[in-house]
UniProtKB/TrEMBL annotation:
Keyword set, alphabetical order: Membrane, Transmembrane, Transmembrane helix
InterPro entries reported in the protein's UniProt record: DUF378
Coiled-coil residue windows: none
Protein name: DUF378 domain-containing protein
Length: 70
């Protein structure tokens, strides 16, 4: 479950960075009152933690269930 939540947070971060690159619009800051707003900073921190967690996905061996599914 933590893997899925982390992946969702990383996707949110990627979409936000994409909107910054393409439209010069920081969606998190826009939605939550600026990049200095506390809630924006919480979202940024959660995205960062999700990204850090997803690093572990690179080094894990596939579980037996995943092998059977493929």
């Amino acid at each position: 479950m933590i893997d899925r939540i982390s992946l969702l947070l990383v996707i949110i971060g990627a979409l936000n960075w994409g909107s910054v690159a393409l439209f010069q619009l920081d969606l998190v800051a826009y939605l939550f009152g600026g990049s200095d707003a506390m809630i924006s900073r919480v979202v940024y921190a959660l995205v960062a933690l999700g990204g850090i967690w997803c690093i572990s996905l690179l080094f894990r061996e596939p579980s037996a269930r995943q092998i059977q599914d493929h």
